[in-house]
Structure formats: C-alpha cells, structure tokens
Amino acid sequence: PYDENPITRLAGVDISHEVLEVTRKICQPRDHEREYLRISPLTVDLYCGSIDVADERLLGFEAIVCMEVIEHVYPPVLDKFFDAVLGAYKPKILIVTTPNVEFNVYFPQLKYGTPEATFRIDDHKFEWSRREFQEW
After folding, report:
1. pLDDT tens readout for residues 23-38
2. pTM confidence score
3. Which of 10, 13, 117, 132 would bridge with 128, disulfide CB 3.0–4.6 Å?
C-alpha cells in the first residue's frame, strides 16, 4: 500500500464470453477488501478479444502478461502475436509463459516421447520444449 508506483489499472482479455463472465465474478471485491481499502484505487476491466488483433482499449499498459495462453491458439493466430502486442501496444515489460513439454515426463499417462504422446489439456494446439519456446 505504500508503493510509490502502485498498480491502479488491470485488464484481462479472453476470446470466450463465458470465461469472461466467470472472471468478472471472481474479480468482484470481497468483504475484507472493502474493509481495508487500497491507498490507490484499482480498476479492473475485462475485454473480449484475441491475441492476434490489436485493441485500442489496451493501449498504454506498461506491462503485459500472457500466461498459459499461446498453446491454446492455432499457428496463424500465433504468427500475429508479436505484431499486435509489441507492434501496437509497445509495453515496457512482456511476460509470456507456456507449459514445458519436457515436464510431461512426470505425467506417465501422457506417454511423453512416444508416438502415443498426448497433451496435458485437450485444447492445447502444441506444447513446446524450452528450446522451441526460446526459438519462437
């Protein structure tokens, strides 16, 4: 609460209206949050959109976090990611995470390294190794 540069605005983006509705409910202040107010107000906006299309409502954010998202999109969408994010938004900080396929060895049911290998989640379009992620 005494930070000189407090976070005052957050935005979430998802392509699914259903996911956004669940998120909207989760983001509502709880009783204890109303009791102990922040020194600086926090605004949380949720938008329906895609990572491959720049949205003017998202301009001006200093940091963008794309956590566990890219593995859910098809390659043509992923190919446009950097143009939209770095080209249009130009954040000072960009953090992108994705599951490490090499970790799948700890899930025997995924049969990692065999022709019968499967992804951790059915909706994944790919799962990269550390090297593949770094090359991307």
Report:
1. 999 988 888 877 777 7
2. 0.84
3. 132
